[in-house]
């Protein structure tokens, strides 16, 4: 199975909780620090607030991270800079500290989100590789029936392209209305490329992935996506073609 490596918090309730916490925690922290503001340096206050921003950004929700950054800056200004309990700032040093706090917090949020995207991408690539290797093993194992090996490949292709279904059909594609996915991950119909990144895979229609033995097309996988529009990346589309190639050793040639 392919692991998509999504955010830790997913779904509206979790996002709402993360965003509320992103606002309230900096405010509560600064209100507590206000009681000992004489002993708290500007650097200490900024570092404590940045920790809350890091926590908000770690949820994978950019809005939560940005809300924490704004709340941290506003709370720091309101509770810890003169005149106290006011959003106005009297000293230039306090202005600089407030601005730096917001800028650092925004930067921390973006870095955290970038790290999560890289982790998710690595997880997807690992899942794709496991799928290709699993399909190759199924084809290579002599005790696995040819039909079962093809079914394994079809299931992997269905998952990686987020399609509704996939089945193997012997022979090349004869219907010009069927979109065909090539080895470069480009989808074409009747000689015209389809911008999958923008419009997704054709819904209520078929997509074919040819299976080749050498230069000969011995069959193709036929995909359907009728329940929803799928937007697989080019990387996913190329992996699907690579998966389809694994079936070449399991299908007979008529």
What would you note in describing this structure?
This protein has 254 residues and is of the alpha+beta class. It is built from 7 helices and 6 strands, in the order αααααββββαββα. Strand 5 and strand 6 (216-224) form a beta hairpin. Helix 1 (12-33) packs antiparallel against helix 2 (42-57), helix 1 runs parallel beside helix 3 (62-80) and helix 2 packs antiparallel against helix 3 (62-80). The relative contact order is 0.11.
Topology:
Elements: H1 12-33, H2 42-57, H3 62-80, H4 92-140, H5 146-160, E1 165-170, E2 179-181, E3 187-189, E4 192-194, H6 196-199, E5 206-213, E6 216-224, H7 234-245
Parallel strand pairs: 2-5
Antiparallel strand pairs: 1-6, 2-3, 3-4, 5-6
Within the largest sheet, what's the order of strands?
1-6-5-2-3-4
- Number of domains as seen in the coordinates: 2
What amount of the residues lies in strands?
5-15%
What coarse outline follows from CA principal-axis ratios? elongated
Could you name the ranges where pLDDT drops below 50 across 5 or more consecutive residues?
1-10
What's the average pLDDT?
Answer: 80
The largest sheet is: 6 strands, mixed
In total, how many beta strands? 6
Q: Tally the helices: what do you get?
A: 7
Q: What separation lies between the terminal Cα atoms?
A: 32 Å
Kindly list the characteristics that best describe this protein.
54% helix, alpha+beta, elongated, single chain, 6 strands, 7 helices, disordered N terminus, 13% strand, 254 residues, six-stranded mixed sheet
């Amino acid at each position: 199975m392919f692991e998509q490596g999504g955010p830790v918090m997913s779904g509206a309730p979790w996002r709402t909780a993360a965003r509320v916490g992103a606002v309230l925690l900096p405010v509560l922290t600064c209100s507590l620090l206000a009681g000992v503001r004489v002993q708290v340096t500007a650097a200490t206050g900024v570092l404590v607030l940045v920790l809350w921003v890091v926590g908000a950004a770690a949820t994978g929700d950019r809005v939560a991270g940005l809300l924490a950054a704004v709340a941290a800056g506003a709370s720091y200004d309101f509770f810890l800079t003169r005149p106290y309990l006011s959003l106005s700032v009297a000293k230039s040093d306090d202005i600089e500290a407030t601005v730096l706090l917001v800028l650092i917090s925004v930067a921390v949020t973006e870095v955290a989100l970038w790290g999560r995207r890289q982790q998710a991408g690595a997880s997807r690539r690992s899942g794709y590789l496991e799928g290709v290797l699993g399909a190759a093993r199924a084809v290579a194992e002599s005790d696995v029936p040819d039909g079962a090996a093809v079914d394994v490949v079809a299931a992997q292709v269905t998952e990686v392209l987020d399609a509704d279904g996939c089945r193997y059909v012997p022979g090349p594609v004869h219907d010009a209305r069927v979109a065909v996915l090539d080895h470069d991950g480009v989808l074409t119909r009747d000689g015209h490329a389809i911008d999958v990144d923008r419009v997704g895979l054709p819904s209520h229609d078929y997509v074919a992935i040819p299976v080749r033995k050498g230069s000969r097309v011995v069959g193709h996988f036929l995909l359907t996506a009728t329940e929803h529009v799928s937007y697989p990346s080019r990387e996913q589309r190329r992996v699907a073609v690579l998966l389809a190639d694994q079936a070449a050793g399991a299908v007979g040639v008529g």
